Description:
alpha/beta
Amino acid sequence: xxxxxxxxxxxxxxxxxxxxxxxxxxxxxxxxxxxxxxxxxxxxxxxxxxxxxxxxxxxxxxxxxxxxxxxxxxxxxxxxxxxxxxxxxxxxxxxxxxxxxxxxxxxxxxxxxxxxxxxxxxxxxxxxxxxxxxxxxxxxxxxxxxxxxxxxxxxxxxxxxxxxxxxxxxxxxxxxxxxxxxxxxxxxxxxxxxxxxxxxxxxxxxxxxxxxxxxxxxxxxxxxxxxxxxxxxxxxxxxxxxxxxxxxxxxxxxxxxxxxxxxxxxxxxxxxxxxxxxxxxxxxxxxxxxxxxxxxxxxxxxxxxxxxxxxxxxxxxxx
Length: 319
Ligand SMILES: [Zn+2]
Ligand SMILES: [Zn+2]
């Protein structure tokens, strides 16, 4: 046996093995980089309805497909007081057709005597929360408190539309919300709509002046304080009100996202037909908000909480 040849063969094998390992390592780095760019990010839409612009159940699923939403909280609006009527039964029907896609919520008229009884029935039938709670009543109304208390007992979330003014919904956020957060520790209250988002700033105009305030946010707003003090409070980023609040002062928004990593939930409330703005002036709230969040929150893990995990936590509650 020729020792030197044996040595060189062995060292060739070692050398080529090293090269191969280097190739593999660089391949993995490339592959990781590539997939982090291209791999779709799991998404839950925490705020979706069915009947906007006569959108059918199948249209709503197509909207989810087009916007990359794996699942959506589907929120009925039984009284129709916000302009759209969607029955809890329709949401349950949709859930039976699309069990992997739809997370059904329920909502009934709190002024009717059978309200709490029906909520318990919807719980038995598979509903996972109450919302959208949107009726022309002050937030302090005992009937509104009664549904918050039921959610607390059932370990449920409740999505609430907060809009002050003479024709508002759950009026009196600044005066009444904290009492509930203090009193009911188990329910997850998910805040949504104009007055909720106006309180991102410590300067809140009267509703008669503006429900969509613009311009720089003044630090020290009610939302920052309540989200910091109450882990069972969540913010639903959906709709024009959410987008307006998050874009009026992006420097503030970047820090707002950093301060509340576990309580901000992606949602669209998008009424468009096809997930590309059809019937809605070419705007899709879901696509628009996804683009914004990706730009302002470059870290994929932090985004995953907003796009997915915080919705799951709000749904299941805190261990
Ligand atoms: Zn809505
Ligand atoms: Zn859309």
